[in-house]
TrEMBL record, chain A:
PROSITE patterns: PROKAR_LIPOPROTEIN. It comes from the Bacteria. The keyword Signal applies. It comes from Flavobacterium glycines. Residues 1-18 form the signal peptide. Keywords: Signal. This is SusE outer membrane protein domain-containing protein.
UniProtKB/TrEMBL annotation, chain B:
InterPro entries: Beta-barrel_TonB_sf, CarboxyPept-like_regulatory, Plug_dom, Plug_dom_sf, TonB-dep_OMP_SusC/RagA, TonB-dep_OMP_SusC/RagA_CS, TonB-dep_rcpt-like. Pfam families: CarbopepD_reg_2, Plug. The lineage of its organism: Bacteria, Pseudomonadati, Bacteroidota, Flavobacteriia, Flavobacteriales. This is SusC/RagA family TonB-linked outer membrane protein. Residues 1-20 form the signal peptide.
């Protein structure tokens, strides 16, 4: 009986110890881990990320680090691999302060570092929300991005911009290696606003330049902002744009098509096809895409074409399609109305997807990226009825619709079932019908709802903010 | 009593009128001295027969004292007794406990069950007829170990039948059905269960290799009822009842719907979608009640007559099956007749012919989910102020803002039906020139014509969203003419007392020709019934037509040998030539061999004979094929495309598929080990088997590499990859009898483990079902592949901690209450690489339990079937819980969904935008335990014998699919699908509970 009892106890304790053993590897005792923070005071701001930086180390191996700011709902544990053991770690953790916190608030960030032996140490860091992080605002007056300097008129490049910053401006820098410009303006008294205005002389040979403008503020942790401006100096216009917007309109809010890129170019003879959607439509020709200045072609008091930002518009008398030719060198232009003969894509609103070709009816929708609900699948383009274009009741050659752009790079092909029909939006707002040019153009535009006009006669797309 | 008296009177009168006739009477009992009612008493050589009454008594007139009486009854050993001088012949029938003398069909032959050396399971037609089903395989569910059957709801739906799992990824997994020796393809919908005498399932390759290139998914041999010599017997079998359609979800009423959507909108920063929800109180539209019938009728009826003499037997049956849909229209009707005649001209020469005409018609709407999903505020019909009196009858319905098309209107428009006309004829001649040598030739011809008609009326419910401005009409007629011819010679002989040999050789030919023609048109002048013809179309007429054919020629042989009924050996060989393959690979060989050792017949087992009645060990190997690929893979095909060039649509051509002259059969080799046993006078019996199947040269459709110059959409069939499956089948039976009470139970147990051994290239990933399943080497095929949903973010702290080591949010658009997806690979990013195995559609095991009880005149049958360990994807979760769409949601979703810490860890917060992709990311949120136990059938019967002028009268009450246990929250846990897309449950037509009354009469 004793033997039985002994065997029973032996079995019992064997099971007990087997069942209770810790699956985790045992580590020998070691020294406490160490932590070295880059600063004990961090500046943050509501709705902005700040960085927690520290160097963690342990003689045996780190197990984890815990970052806590209870008031801001942060309780993050970063676990480290134990095979092999990690003896040092550079902590770089970003956290965004909620937008509803006040700038006068301050908190304590608690770091708890634990090693594999179970030793742990705490490190506190103060967090203040009264930091200033905005880079100085550089407001470019001239030249605008993509500006064209026509060397035959003048080789002077006026550079004029205004810098603003709440905490004061430390210095302003203008650089362009190709032009040998390297100019730094060190400001005294940390003014909150500064205007730079200087004219540089360009070589008379055609070239492209990049002006780099940098400004730094005077905050405890300085903020530096840089703006690059591309400028083209040329003896001839590389491109001319047709603009039917009133002067003063911001020409950079569209995603594509405004102002309209030319259709044909021979030397300095540019030809446009254009649809005037109303009688007495007013148009200009621009030497650059983003602005009415410096080259805006319109009419002077005598009715002649001039390159002058104060020029009057050319008026197209009646609604309809026009062929317009212009030469910015000779300042000659012609306007001819015409009747299109290209295919009319009628009744696309009643398109039908069908695997059987005979039962199919063309629809036109949007495939692409950077467009909400869109991808590169034509079936998706069919089922996402919100992307479908419909006929413009006023113009059989125009299909219209609406898209929501997400703010990321936009690439679009207007398409029916299985890419038939399709118009691929390549660069410069050109919507080429298959089999036209390859390669969708990438357009940048702010997030939001945009109006879409696909003109099948012009093979152009106009995507403008609604 | 009255009838008994009349019977006696007639018997006496007859005996008086007929000199030398003798009236014999007696009682038939079993070994326990319990009378047996319903025993067939038959005077051999005549057509005279009677049945015993409830007390086991009979009276019969025999021509003379030399007459022999044959007493037969299912489950008992048939006895033949010479009358001699007796006028009273009492009989004690022995239980046919050992069913080993039963005959099993093995393909081009029959053998006694005890002589079977491979894996074959048999089910009697009587067992299949306990259920009222359109497709007999549904009744087979749970009755055969190793056969997994997934039910399918809906009139005419075909269950998925897997025999020992799957052995192919891209081809059909359906077994081959062979009816009365003629291969009939992979569907059995055409057959009434009342026509079936028995089904034999050839499970392993050593059994099925005789069917060669079509046997890799197993073969099911069906024997239909034939006439027996004796008096003419009439039978009427009828069951009729109702299928019940329960609304699968409790959906929100109008007020609750508004509250739910308002919550979703406001949670996403929008203003309320339907302000003041209380205004909708009491204004809920009952779509379900208006369009879905709670019950729909189902009827299965057969009238049969059979009988004959020793020279000629016949069996004629007329069968009718009708299953209405739960809409007010549509369903499935099938009328078949089977006329079988067998002739024995001489002892050496016999023949038979069977005619099987059939008519089917089917079609029903399939939009029942729309009755659940459509919003509950929209009325069924447009309000009067929106009607101007010019609308046609299809345009008076209201449009739902939920984008679900008005389902009542859709049913109203429905006109999509198919009619099938078919005649199958099957005849044989058999000649036995010398004893033991049988020469048989058999041919069959099938003519079929299927006509599909569809009419879509014009209507305008909403000018922008829900309309068809022009009506259209379509008709497609498909005609098939198939024939088979098979001739065999079999020689069987016993020599030296203990050596039994049988040798069979033969040749078979099959040919399948089909063609179709299609016509289409639009603009029929009006929507009236009489105008629904293609000729009435005024616009866009179109037509097409094509034809296709395939053929198969085979040489078959089988050698069977046994020594002293102890040691058995069977070998078979088939050589198939198929039109689907080019010359180099047109022919393939399918050998098989099996052996068994009947241990219980050994002398050393003699002492154990009271315990062990049967003990047999079997082993088999075989090779079979799968040629279920399109008939034209040997062809290179040109596809037709359209491009717009200069504004004009231009026809173009491109290489769509390329011929692979090396294409060959998908080959499956398997080994099988089995143990058959019977204990205690076979009260307990069963079979335990282990098998392993290996598929080689699997058929895949591959794209060409880009450097080949072919477009990416051009494909080619090719033989690559292999897979392996193994498992255990167990059948355990128990039966016993205590006085008037008899009972029995059959338990079937099936396991299947499948793994991909190799794919076309190392590391290849084969995606299926919109990238939601994955198949890779070393894993089971088609497992669910997606993100792991790790509960919901309960508070801001949990949300803030879901970052990488630098604080970058892994789910930047997530808010508290959204799904937390797991960073499976721990790289601090949530991307495609975090998708992992999140479930398996394949069951760990299937169990069937079939119980039967009988007490005096009562009998009770109960069948259970279960699938354990499989997962299912419940695709309806998105429709029911996702606030991003405007469809109706489950009732109380505003409270069920997360609305504060701790309120839910499963249903995410309601959101109009779902920016976190709670529902658009395929994750384990959708995966549920798909295990279930279902009571397939419960039937209570009461039988009367020799009453009211009938030999037998039985009435029964049964319920099918009345009870199901499952944790799956979808519509129905029986979900089929292809290999790479199995287990995706959604708005599939459920297997419905059914209540039935049955009547069986024989006279």
């Amino acid at each position: 009986m004793k033997k039985l009892s002994f065997l029973f106890l032996l079995t019992f304790f064997t099971i007990l110890f087997t069942g209770c053993q810790n699956d985790e590897a045992d580590f020998p005792s070691s020294d406490n881990p160490t932590v070295a923070v880059s600063t004990t005071e961090i500046y943050g701001a509501p709705n902005r990320k700040f960085e927690i930086k520290a160097t963690l180390a342990d003689d045996l191996g780190l197990k984890n680090v815990r970052i806590q700011i209870p008031e801001l709902d942060l309780d993050k544990v970063i676990n480290f691999a134990t095979d092999p053991l990690l003896t040092s770690y550079n902590l770089s953790y970003f956290f965004e302060v909620p937008a509803d916190r006040g700038v006068s608030e301050a908190f304590v960030i608690k770091l708890t570092i634990t090693d594999v032996s179970g030793n742990s140490v705490d490190q506190n860091i103060n967090l203040r929300l009264d930091g200033e992080f905005s880079t100085p605002a550089i407001n470019m007056i001239t030249p605008k991005e993509g500006a064209v300097v026509l060397l035959s008129s003048s080789n002077q490049l006026p550079v004029n911009f205004v810098v603003n910053d709440d905490s004061g401006i430390d210095y302003v820098q203008v650089k362009c290696a190709a032009l040998g410009i390297d100019e730094t303006v060190q400001l005294t008294g940390a003014p909150q606003s500064y205007t730079f205005n200087k004219t540089y002389t360009l070589p008379v040979t055609a070239a492209s330049y990049v002006l780099s403008i940098t400004a730094r503020d005077k905050f405890k942790i300085p903020n530096t902002g840089t703006l690059n401006i591309n400028v083209v100096a040329t003896n001839e216009y590389p491109a001319i744009y047709l603009c039917d917007q009133p002067k003063g309109t911001n020409l950079t809010t569209d995603a594509a098509g405004v102002p309209m890129y030319f259709h044909e170019k021979t030397g300095q003879d540019f030809e446009f096809k254009y649809y005037a959607d109303s009688n007495n439509k007013e148009i200009y020709f621009l030497g650059q895409e983003a602005d009415f200045a410096p080259h805006c072609f319109g009419l002077n008091g005598s009715g002649n074409l001039v390159d002058n930002v104060t020029a009057s518009p050319i008026v197209l008398p009646t609604k309809g399609y026009y062929k317009i030719k212009v030469n910015p060198s000779t300042l000659a232009y012609t306007v001819t109305k015409y009747t299109p003969t290209s295919k009319v894509w009628a009744d696309v609103a009643n398109g039908v997807w069908n695997d059987t070709e005979a039962l199919r009816k063309p629809f036109v929708s949007v495939c692409g990226e950077g467009v909400k609900d869109s991808n590169w699948d034509t079936w998706n383009a069919w089922v996402q009825t919100g992307l479908h274009l419909v006929n413009n009741p006023d113009n059989p050659y125009q299909l219209v619709g609406e898209v929501t752009l997400t703010g990321s790079s936009v690439k679009i092909t207007f398409t029916g079932q299985w890419w038939n029909p399709q118009w691929r939006l390549i660069k410069n707002g050109i919507a080429t019908m298959s089999p036209g040019e390859n390669g969708n153009g990438a357009y940048s535009a702010a997030a939001g709802v945009y109006k879409v006009i696909l003109d099948t006669e012009l093979e152009r797309a106009f995507i403008t903010k609604k | 009593m009255k009838y008994k008296f009349i019977g006696l009177l007639i018997a006496v009168l007859c005996s008086a009128a007929t000199f030398a006739q003798i009236t014999v009477k007696g009682t038939v009992k079993d070994k326990s001295a319990v009378p047996i009612p319903g025993v067939n008493v038959f005077v051999k050589g005549t057509q005279t027969s009677v049945s015993t009454d409830f007390d086991g008594k009979y009276v019969i007139v025999v021509p003379n004292k030399e007459a022999q009486l044959e007493f037969s009854f299912m489950g008992f050993v048939t006895q033949t007794i010479k009358v001699d001088q007796r006028t009273v012949v009492d009989v004690v029938l022995s239980d046919n406990n050992q069913t080993l003398d039963e005959v099993v069909v093995v393909g081009y032959a029959t053998v006694k069950k005890k002589d079977v050396t491979s894996s074959i399971a048999s089910v009697k037609g009587k067992e299949l007829q306990t259920m009222t089903v359109g497709n007999v395989t549904e009744s087979l569910q749970g009755k055969v170990a190793g056969v997994q059957i997934t039910g399918a709801g809906g009139p005419g739906a075909q269950p998925r039948v897997l025999i020992r799992g799957i052995s192919t990824v891209n081809l059909s997994t359906d077994p081959l059905y062979v009816v009365d020796g003629i291969p009939m393809g992979t569907s059995i919908n055409f057959l009434s269960n009342n026509e079936i005498e028995s089904m034999d399932v050839l499970k392993d390759a050593s059994a099925s290799a005789i069917y060669g290139s079509r046997a890799s998914n197993g073969v099911i041999l069906i024997t239909t009822k034939k006439g027996k010599a004796g008096k003419t017997k009439f039978t009427v079998d009828m069951s009729t009842g109702y299928q019940i359609m329960n609304k699968p979800y409790d959906m929100a009423n109008a007020e609750n719907y508004a509250t739910i959507l308002n919550t979703a909108y406001t949670n996403s920063g929008y203003s309320e979608y339907l302000p003041n929800p209380e205004q909708y109180r009491g204004k809920t539209t009952d779509w379900w009640g208006a369009g879905i019938d709670r019950t729909s009728s189902v009827t299965n009826a057969s009238i049969g007559v059979s009988g004959g003499s020793e020279k000629n037997t016949y069996a004629i049956s007329l069968n009718y099956y009708n299953s209405d849909s739960f809409y007010d229209i549509g369903g499935w009707k099938r009328v078949t007749a089977r006329i079988a005649n067998d002739f024995k001209f001489t002892d050496k020469f016999s023949a038979g012919v069977t005619l099987n005409p059939r008519y089917e018609t089917w079609g029903s709407p399939s939009n029942w989910a729309d009755f659940v999903k459509i919003d509950p505020i929209t009325p069924i019909y447009k309000p009067a102020d929106q009607l101007n009196g010019t609308e046609n009858e299809y345009s008076i319905y209201a449009r739902s803002p939920s984008y679900v098309w008005n389902p009542i209107a859709a049913v109203k428009r429905y006109d999509d039906y198919t009619d099938l006309y078919n005649l199958n004829s099957n005849a044989y001649l058999q000649y036995e020139p010398i004893k033991g040598l049988i020469i048989r030739t058999q041919g069959s011809v099938e003519f079929g014509n299927k006509v599909w008609n569809k009419f879509s009326p014009d209507f305008v419910i909403d000018a922008a969203h829900e309309k068809a401005e022009i009506n259209s009409v379509e008709r497609k007629a498909t005609t098939n003419v198939d024939w088979t011819w098979q001739s065999t010679a079999t020689y069987s002989r016993k020599f030296a007392e203990k050596h039994n040999v049988s040798l069979m050789g033969g040749v078979t030919m099959e040919n399948y020709d089909s063609s179709d023609v299609w016509g289409y048109g639009e603009g029929v002048p009006n929507n009236s019934e009489s105008m629904r013809e293609v000729s009435a179309a005024t616009k866009n007429r179109n037509s097409s037509g094509t034809s296709w054919s395939s053929s198969l020629m085979s040489y078959i042989s089988r050698l069977s040998y046994n020594f002293d009924s102890k040691y058995y050996l069977t070998a078979s060989f088939r050589r198939d030539g198929s039109s689907k393959f080019m010359a180099e690979n047109k022919w393939a060989n399918f050998p098989a061999a099996s052996a068994s050792w009947r241990i219980s017949n050994e002398d050393f087992m003699a002492n154990a004979s009271s315990l062990v009645n049967n003990l047999t060990f079997r082993a088999g190997w075989g090779r079979v094929g799968n040629q279920n690929l399109p008939s034209s893979v040997y062809q290179s095909n040109i596809g037709q495309g359209y491009y717009v060039i200069d504004g004009n649509v231009v026809d173009t051509s491109y290489p769509s598929t390329m011929a692979n002259k090396d294409i060959r059969w998908e080959i499956v080799e398997d080994i099988n080990f089995g143990l058959d046993f019977g204990l205690w006078k076979n009260k307990i019996s069963g079979t335990l088997e282990y098998y392993q199947k290996t598929t080689k040269d699997m058929l895949f459709v591959k794209q060409f590499p880009t450097y080949s110059g072919f477009p990416s959409y051009a494909t080619i069939w090719t033989n690559v990859g292999s897979m392996r499956s193994n498992g255990i089948d167990l059948l355990l039976s128990y039966k016993d009898k205590k006085g008037d009470f008899s009972y029995g139970a059959d338990l079937t147990f099936t396991t299947v483990n499948v793994k991909m051994v190799s794919l076309s290239t190392d590391g290849e990933k084969l995606y299926g079902s919109s990238n939601r399943t994955l198949t890779v080497q070393g894993e089971e095929p088609g497992y669910f592949y997606g993100y792991v949903a790790d509960g919901l973010f309960q508070n801001q702290t949990e949300l803030n901690s879901h970052t990488d080591e630098h604080g970058t949010k892994m789910q930047p658009y997530a808010q508290v209450g959204d799904v937390r997806f797991k960073d499976v690979n721990g790289d601090g990013k949530l991307d495609d690489k975090d998708r992992t195995k999140i479930g398996s559609p394949w069951a760990d095991y299937n169990v069937g339990l079939n119980l039967n009880f009988a007490y005096k005149n009562f009998d009770l049958v109960a069948n259970f079937y279960s699938s354990i360990g499989n997962d299912l994807v419940n695709q309806n979760i998105s429709d029911l819980y996702n606030g991003a769409s405007l469809t109706n949601k489950v009732s109380g979703l505003d409270q069920m969904a997360w609305h504060g810490e701790g309120t839910s860890n499963y249903i995410p917060r309601l959101s109009k935008d779902d920016n976190n992709e709670n529902f658009t990311k395929f994750s384990s949120l959708y995966v549920e335990d798909g295990s279930f136990v279902r009571m397939k059938n419960l039937q209570l019967g009461y039988s009367l014998y020799n009453k009211f002028g009938f030999d037998k009268l039985r009435i029964s009450l049964s319920g099918q699919n009345l009870w199901t246990w499952t944790k799956y929250s979808g519509v129905d846990p029986e979900v089929g699908g292809g290999v790479l897309g199995s287990g995706f449950g959604g708005w599939n037509y459920p297997v419905q509970p059914t209540i039935l009354m049955g009547l069986n009469v024989a006279f």
